[in-house]
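Example 9 (inverse folding). The structure is encoded as follows.
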């Protein structure tokens, strides 16, 4: 890595948790689309596939703050390892039930277990960076930007890999890769105790949930709407590619969507910004809403890939500033849980988007269903602008400095 990113890896232990964190996060871009590809192949219904994927996302969204609170209280290793074992068992159960032709309701029930035991590893990686940067805001900005770039690399390659595996190897192959990468990546990450943030005793009032902080609530609502864009675009793009006679191209188109975010994330993290976090957040949301407009009017696979790339350009700047705002706003001892609320908001949004995208695709076709993504993007920008006054960060030290 060049420029400001190079200095991050002078931190002892950083390379180890970054690599294992990357492997452990790979499933976040593969789980949903792998489930959609598997269930749609078995049922010939994107509505059913979207509903099961939505169930997984809702279960994850509900459990993420709870696991985050447990991590803040007991430490990462003591929580991650048993959760990962349970998640692996749930994934195996889902595949076995699907292969045996079990009733649909059993897939929904198992989907709840899969989602509830999924790990919000991104928040825990960022918590390590927050601890290791020791209040250096410039280095923390670079670290969060780097992690956003890693996320987008995952979202560039993950959907394409899942689609290729499902269409050329087996409809179950994507979930097998999810199982292996989760088990290996999360376990290796958890065992690296040297960079694990210490468990901090909570001060009076420390039991209050971060979601009750007005600024955190605003950021979470924004990411709820953005998650709806992500969930709907993932599912609708698979159906769009199939309508155009090129289902295998779905992964490449979704990779283009993440590729735009990857490019902007590298650029955004390499800059030292003078404008406030609040201003950066609101401006990025405005660009995001504008960028989604073209996908509603495109009807060709190649042009759609270009449109999705442009739509993705504002994703990383929004996510980077969103995490930074939460890091500044949450009280001491609740950092992991505070960041987990972003994952929760996105998870609920993805669930809404997957469900609505599947229903709208079945009813009106994929091209028309993209209109839902545009509505959600406009809603995200509106909420961010309306609540911007609540996003002023306090002058006192961040949780990383405490």
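The amino acid assigned to each position is listed next.
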């Amino acid at each position: 890595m060049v420029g400001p990113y190079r200095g991050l890896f002078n931190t002892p232990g950083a390379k180890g948790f970054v690599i294992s964190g990357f492997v452990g996060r790979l499933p976040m871009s593969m789980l949903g689309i792998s489930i959609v590809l598997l269930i749609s192949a078995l049922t010939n219904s994107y509505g059913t596939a979207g509903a099961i994927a939505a169930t997984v996302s809702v279960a994850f969204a509900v459990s993420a703050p709870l696991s985050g609170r447990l991590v803040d209280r007991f430490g990462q290793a003591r929580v991650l390892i048993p959760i990962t074992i349970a998640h692996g068992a749930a994934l195996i159960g889902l595949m076995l039930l699907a292969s045996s032709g079990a009733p649909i309701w059993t897939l929904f029930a198992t989907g709840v277990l899969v989602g509830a035991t999924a790990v919000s590893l991104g928040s825990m990686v960022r918590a390590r960076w927050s601890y290791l940067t020791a209040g250096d805001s410039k280095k923390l900005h670079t670290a969060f930007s780097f992690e956003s770039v890693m996320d987008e690399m995952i979202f560039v390659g993950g959907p394409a890999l899942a689609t290729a595996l499902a269409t050329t190897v087996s409809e179950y192959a994507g979930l097998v890769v999810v199982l292996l990468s989760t088990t290996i990546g999360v376990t290796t990450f958890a065992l690296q105790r040297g960079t694990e943030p210490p468990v901090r005793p909570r001060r009076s009032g420390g039991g209050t949930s971060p979601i009750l902080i007005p600024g955190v609530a605003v950021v979470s609502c924004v990411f709820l709407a953005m998650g709806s864009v992500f969930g709907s675009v993932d599912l609708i793009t698979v159906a769009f590619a199939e309508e155009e006679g090129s289902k295998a191209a779905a992964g490449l188109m979704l990779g283009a969507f993440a590729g735009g975010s990857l490019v902007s994330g590298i650029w955004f993290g390499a800059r030292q910004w003078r404008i406030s976090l609040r201003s950066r957040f609101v401006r990025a949301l405005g660009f995001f809403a504008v960028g989604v407009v073209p996908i509603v009017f495109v009807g060709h696979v190649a042009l759609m890939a270009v449109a999705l790339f442009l739509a993705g350009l504002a994703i990383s700047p929004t996510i980077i500033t969103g995490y930074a705002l939460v890091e500044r706003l949450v009280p001491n001892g609740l950092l992991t849980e505070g960041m987990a609320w972003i994952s929760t908001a996105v998870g609920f949004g993805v669930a809404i988007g997957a469900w609505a995208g599947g229903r709208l695709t079945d009813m009106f076709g994929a091209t028309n269903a993209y209109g839902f993504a545009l509505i959600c993007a406009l809603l995200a920008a509106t909420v961010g602008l309306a609540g911007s006054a609540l996003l002023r960060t306090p002058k006192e030290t961040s949780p990383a400095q405490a």
